[in-house]
């Protein structure tokens, strides 16, 4: 019973956050099978990420900066980006800017959820510690996914040089946010709470702003308004 409770506590935050961002799609909800597929694919990236990170740690050492921005953020966000770009970027269901956020958060939260499960069963944890992880690392991964997906959505519906610019940003922005998150956790362990709470607040504000902006430029927005007027 305790094992089941720990498993549920480790999985629930990722599912809840994915549902939140999925339901934020105001105009054209994405097919659940594709969202679930990307969530599971994100979970499957945990093993290759761990292998690459282990190799980089042996090469680069454990400098806080190198670990935060290269070993952790760089590897994790690049592999998420790679999966997202090659599986869904050219998919026909990627038909509005907000779709990038849905799909990117699915990949990110799949990764974060399995990582959370592994943490719960390989470390001496309490429910309080899992709650902290839900509020910090898991929600952090969700927001990194929002930044990635927002820029990828902009790339998808841009033209010319703007496409490459937003594709680059779709990798650099989550790496920067993730790297700074990890750097704070590694360098200010005694007072991390006083820095991390406002930092997460800023990330959430930026994330919600990206959600609203992506929804505001949906090509289905006018169609839905016309249907509401007719009804």
Structural notes for this entry:
Residues 226-231 have low confidence and may be disordered. The chain starts with a helix and ends with a helix. The chain is mainly α and 231 residues long. The chain has helices spanning 2-23, 32-44, 46-60, 64-87, 98-122, 127-156, 161-187, 192-216, 221-230.
Mean pLDDT: 89
Termini Cα gap: 51 Å
- Number of H/I helices: 9
State the helicity in percent bands: over 70%
Sequence of secondary-structure elements: HHHHHHHHH
Shape: globular
Low-pLDDT segments, ≥5 res: 226-231
Describe this protein with a few key phrases.
9 helices, single chain, 83% helix, mainly alpha, disordered C terminus
Helix-strand blueprint:
Elements: H1 2-23, H2 32-44, H3 46-60, H4 64-87, H5 98-122, H6 127-156, H7 161-187, H8 192-216, H9 221-230
Give a short summary of the structure:
By secondary structure, this protein is an all-alpha fold.
């Amino acid at each position: 019973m305790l094992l089941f409770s720990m498993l549920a506590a480790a999985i629930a935050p990722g599912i809840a956050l994915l549902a939140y961002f999925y339901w934020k799609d105001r105009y054209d909800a994405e097919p659940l099978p594709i969202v679930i597929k990307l969530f599971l694919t994100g979970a499957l990236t945990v093993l290759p990420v761990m292998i690459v990170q282990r190799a980089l740690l042996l090469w680069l050492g454990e400098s806080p900066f190198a670990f935060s921005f290269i070993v952790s953020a760089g590897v994790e966000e690049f592999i998420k980006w790679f999966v997202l770009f090659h599986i869904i970027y050219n998919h026909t269901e990627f038909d509005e800017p907000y779709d990038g956020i849905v799909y990117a958060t699915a990949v990110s939260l799949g990764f974060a959820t399995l990582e959370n499960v592994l943490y719960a069963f390989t470390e001496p944890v309490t429910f309080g510690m899992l709650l902290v992880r839900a509020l910090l690392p898991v929600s952090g991964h969700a927001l990194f996914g929002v930044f990635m997906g927002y820029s990828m959505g902009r790339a998808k519906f841009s033209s010319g040089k703007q496409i490459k610019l937003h594709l680059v940003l779709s990798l650099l922005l989550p790496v920067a946010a993730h790297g700074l998150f990890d750097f704070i956790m590694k360098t200010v362990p005694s007072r991390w709470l006083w820095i991390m709470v406002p930092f997460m607040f800023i990330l959430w504000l930026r994330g919600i702003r990206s959600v609203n902006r992506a929804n505001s430029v949906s090509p289905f927005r006018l169609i839905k308004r016309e249907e509401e007027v007719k009804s």
